[in-house]
## 1
Amino acid sequence: MSDVIIPGTGDWHFGVAGIVYKPFITLLEKELGLIEGTNLFISYYDWRKPIRHSAKHYLYETIQKAKEVSKQKKVNIICHSMGGLVSRTYAQSFYYKNDIDQIIMMCTPNAGSPPNLSYWTGGSLPITSGEKFNLVRLYMEAYLWLLPKIHHTNELTAIHHYFKGLHDIVPSHSFGSYLLCKQSSNGYTPIPYDSMKTQNNILDNLNSKPKKLKKRKIAVTLIAGIGEETIEYFEVVPSSSKKDWIDGKVINALKTEAGDGNAVLKSVFAIDGEKHVVKGTHNEVLFKSFGIISEKLEIEDAILNDFYLLNEEYCLLLLKGKGKIDIFENEKNCTLNPNHTGYYQLRINDLTCLFLSEQILQSHSVNYSPTEKETICYIIIRNSERLEKTVEITPHTPYKILESGGRFS
């Protein structure tokens, strides 16, 4: 997050995603003895932009800075999810400076990921993903709700104009046919990738040169998560719209447990490299890969204690309104300090983003106090639950959005 992404959010930082990445950086510093700014560098990038843009204007510049500060000729890159595609794009580019020793990729969808096709062509994932909390889906749905409100346009136009990086992580040719067109009682007909209107040109190009990383003597380690229900195929029906669902409207998903909840095993392993499998979610794999990372960096492995284990039970609230949100602790009759662990709040003009752990929700309620009569709209995303409301309220009585225990009002 930064002013580049959403004006008013300041210099580069992890934003809401800090719930995952801050503990991971702490892990690298405390357990492996790395020092940020000395031999550990974070490459923030504008994930809304095409991956080629992020590789050239963010990762490349971070690598040059790291080389200059450390006086080293080469770097090791540790990357997660989309970050692995940014790393590959630079490593396989024409402007590559022969300055990468190895790339460690965790949960990188090297052949793309089906849910992103649904978001790109329809603006949503109109099916439940199961009862288990999925942090990536929460982030995606929240941002796509926010995007058209920031830019004052419809959802699909906002996505295609302001979130072009999303198109670079839809499935590619090497993923195989993943859309199954429903043919009434006659079953399904797979839609060939070559006949689809939505294709991933950047991954098709990267994957068409499978030996390039090896030729450039870059060691590749691939770490995939398994054991979580992950979308592998979509059931679709034809769409009459020329703008929405151009390859078929998603009505159902077929899932596999050979994935981390977001990236399937075959996509992570779609390129050559040393392969590892870890049981865990898309975010848990970061922490469960610690031993592999320390071995690859040739740093003595430390014992991973429970401090670094991720508790993925959170509720996200996005609200558009001029008033004030308070997190009220009922037993102590007081409001919660914004710096409290498990509580993240971001305010930009009349938009508020609130991220609360389930532990806090059990004993707190969420109240909204307007300064004048106004109409507010908000969305709450929690596990498989989703509530969206538009409410007209008055300034006399605080409006309760969530009851204690996380119950919807």
## 2
Amino acid sequence: MIAKHGSIKISANSHQGKIGEHLFWPVKRWQALQLHALKKHLRHANQSGIYAGRLPQRIKTIQHLADCPLTDKEQLAAAGDAAFACKPQYVREWVTTSGTTGKPLRVPLTAADLQRLAENEAVALNIAGLTSGDTLILALALDRMFVAGLAYWLGAQKLGAACIRAGAAYAAQLDVLQTLLATGKRNYVITVPSLLVDTCGTMRRDAPSAAMQAVIGIGEPLRTAGLIPNALAQRLTEALRVPALSTYACTETCSTFAEGPNCTGGHLNPALAAVEILDDHGSPVAAGVLGEVVVTPLGVQGMPLVRFRSGDIAALYTDPCPCGRTTPRLGPIVGRKRQLLKVRGSSLFPSAIFDCLSAIPDVRDYAVVAYREHDLSDRVELHVCLNRNTALIRDRVAQRVRALLKVHPTIHIAGIGAIRELQSAANPRKPARFIDHRSKSASSHPPKRRR
């Protein structure tokens, strides 16, 4: 099938050349590709019970996407199987969301969805530098119906790279992980970065430094709002002497924003997604301004979504990127919309506290717990594990946090086991550094400890 958009001819397979080549196209060319994919996607989405009869019959520009209704997680949960647009016999894989902000949601993937997922991650991993003949070490969860590990594996296979399915446990055992690096090969490690930085001190300095090319981080931002490496990325880079790169995606959309060594932000893949950044009223914000990330994943068959509200807050950048790609870039996720804290007149996301603690070398791990103090203010407690528990270090941590929050939060010093138990209790599927108890009644709040 071939469609014409102005003087540009677009076919369904027009971007199937060199992996990721279309991200370097002139803007008008990839926009035409994106519009063609969007039209096809909307026709299929009409088969879903949540969109039937609600989508425009024809759109002429990508801006007309705003004529479509927004979709949120509550709608999907209420719709259940009615949100699907494929027959059960065509499902080849079932995955679920992590359940960070609610009950996990089932997502069906057809054979075509798995192929799309492979293409999506092949482009994302290639932006990071992975190519045929390289080795990707997957130090992350590959079970419990997570889509992430499956996606990275599929993407690496499509690129022609080798995979080592190490699992999440090896991310916390860097000395063991290091033995998996293939000698004489270009190796990439993909993992939750804070798990890796926790054991950077065990890195053998006699190992060939050229073996590891980069760490690809998932689930946590590695850049500041100014698009420079944050404290976590700096600690990784200093310890491992390789770039620390980040990616962003969510299970519902299976669409990735990925960065490479020369990128400032995660690049949109316009063949597989359209993105909007909206304010609290659902209106678009200007480039570089924070808002909610809204994604329309293109080409999905099992559960096609239109204008999916991720609940994540970030900014989109459209100025030229040093890497030469022409697509917009997503900045770091500063937090979830529901996670915004109000502390004695100041508003901030938990990620600001994360950055503060991660910048302190003696902080090994932590958890931030929020309670509702009253309608206009929250109470924050910090549970912190230190590498060296001395009065000087405890005072340094307290001073840093007080300077950020402008108040004196309660800080509990705990062992690593207690911190990990707290994180896992909040979300058994993946460690949670932010634990939100604000929706609970005041009677459920723990009593303030005597000093």
